[in-house]
Amino acid sequence: MLHDYPDVHFIGIGGVSMKSLALYCKQRGLSVSGSDIADCPVLRALAEQGIRAYVGHDPDFAATRSLAVYTAAIPSDDPELSAARAAKVLCMERKAFLALVASEFDKVAAVAGSHGKTTVTAMLCAILRSAGAKFVGHIGGDCIGGECDSTGGTELFVTEACEYNRTFLALRPDVALVLDIAFDHPDCYRDVDEMRDAFRAFCSNIADGGVLIVDNADADLPLRRGRRRVTFGYTSGDFCAADVGYADGTYSFTVVRGREKIARCRLAVRGKHNILNALAAIAAAAELGIEPSVSARAIEGFCGVKRRFEKVCDLASGAQVFCDYAHHPDEIAAAIDTARVMTRGRITAVFEPHTYSRTKSLMDEFSEAFFWADEVLILPTYAAREKPSDGASAYELWRRLRRRRSECLYLEGYREARDCILAHAHAGDTVLLLGAGSIGTELSELLKGQ
Predict the structure, then answer these.
(1) CA dist., res. 183 & res. 195, Å (int)
(2) Buried b / exposed e across 405-422, counting CB within 10 Å, b at 16+?
């Protein structure tokens, strides 16, 4: 049990998942600390909550804790991890600790899928909060316009279930969502078939009497006896959409269950793909006892998650700037499609590739993803846990893009990108800052300062 470990130290506490787990431990009355290799706003926010969060390593301190939690990105020779192990401190990878936390709840709802996990988890939490349910949420991002991730209690745990490093296989959910399956994480999976095998294993972990909520396109995922399947889709499935409308940048639709029209929903978040996200959240909430009409009203007040097509600023020229966490070709195409529907002006896509292995494995898909953008600016690769020899560079992607489009530049840094944007973006244009690295914070701040 969690209370067997009165003081918990998080190695890599600056990550969104680790931050959320650290705050949960603090709420449970545990002594919490953590470290990260770089300073970031998360560390300062945690310090304001009474958590000792520092930059760098303090092996002697880590060796005095009763439990050390570390992410998959932490090397085995990390000074704090090595010191904790030498001192016989229990050391647990994040996915195992997440499973420990989940085991303390009566019911677990886990949201999996290549795209949309954070948004759907946040939507579901917003529904639960609006309905007055007792729950704790573990969301891989920060909600816009306030917290939506917890009301307390041990009745229900709602969590993202990430496929990276097969993290989601540590969970035993009662309600499992699979939003979609698209090949990603080539550093973990050989191909899409191996990835689908991991999702099949996730489905096999659903608790007895549990339910799988799945996109109609992946409805063939196998289930063990004693589990149910609920599907969703744009036009077919147990939950689907009808009478879709569009106005002022957002979509509205009628929720259809079976053949019955049961609720009207107007999204506050942009993008047609969010119709599917909303249907998944509504279907999951229904399994948790919340009427779809209640869920639809809650979603209308859901303003989204930071860095998911989030408005950054208006430039002095009159152009609008949005940032999006998109780092996969499907996500890039969806962000550009959202912008194309919104504007008649030019679209400038500024992309910071995330990891060398992803860039190499999905090079063909990346070269197609920017089709509807008028101008593309490529920034150096955000390496994360990798080195250049692990795949292909951003420069190689730029060379591929240049073969089919003239308006494509390779820029060495954020300041160059800012200067280029300010020089070329005009009234009515839209600028998209795309990537899972620092682009959404660093370049956003530069553009806010004009």
Answers:
(1) 7
(2) eeebbbbeebeebbebbb
With b for 16 or more beta-carbon neighbours within 10 A and e for fewer, the 266-279 pattern comes to: ebebbbbbbbbbbb
Q: Where are the domains of the chain?
A: 2-93, 105-300, 310-448
Query: CA-CA distance, 176 to 226, in Å (whole number)?
Result: 14
pTM summary value? 0.92
Chain-centre distance for alpha carbon 403: 32
Asked if 139 and 318 touch (Cβ cutoff 8 Å), the reply is: no
Q: Looking at domain 310-448, what is its CATH homologous superfamily?
A: Mur ligase, C-terminal domain (3.90.190.20)
Per residue in 189-213, pLDDT (tens digit) is 999 999 999 999 999 999 999 999 9
Rg (CA), the chain: 22
Per residue in 362-388, pLDDT tens? 999 999 999 999 999 999 999 887 888
| Superfamily classification of domain 105-300 | Mur-like, catalytic domain (3.40.1190.10)
